[in-house]
Amino acid sequence: MLAASGDGKESDHPSTESSQTCRKFEYSEILLATDNFDESLVIGKGGFGKVYKGNIINGSSLVVAAIKRLDSMSTQGATEFWAEVEMLSKLRHCHLVSLFGYCNYEKEMILIYEYIPNGTLEDHLHKLGTPLSWLQRLKICIGAARGLDYLHTGTGIEFGVIHRDVKSSNILLHERWAAKISDFGLSKIGPTNQPSTTVITGVKGTFGYFDPNYFTTGKLTRKSDVYAFGVVLMEVLCRKRAVDRTLDEDHWGLVMWAQDSIKEGNLKHIIDSGIRGQISTKCLNEFVQIAEKCLLRNPKLRPTMAEIVVGLNSVLASEEKTSSFFPPDDRKKLDIFPLPSNGENSGRTVVPLPSNGDNSGISSFREPSHPCRQFDFPEILLATHNFHESLLIGVGGFGKVYKGNIMNGSSAEVVAIKRLNTMSSEGASVFWAEVETLSKLRHYHLVSLLGYCNYEKEMILIYNYLPNGTLEHHLHKLGTPLSWLQRLNICIGAARGLDYLHTGMGIDFVVHRNVNTSTILLHENWEAKISSFGLSKIGPANQSLTFVNTLIKGTLGYLDPDYYSTGRLTRKSDVYSFGVVLLEVLCRKRAIERSLDVETWALATWAQQSIKEGNLKRIIDFDIRDQISPYCLQEFVRVVEGCLHSSPKQRPTMAEVVGLLVHIRTIQEKMNNPLKLAQRTIFGRMFDNRRGH
Question: What residue stretches are annotated with the Protein kinase domain (predicted)?
Answer without folding.
Answer: 37-316, 387-666
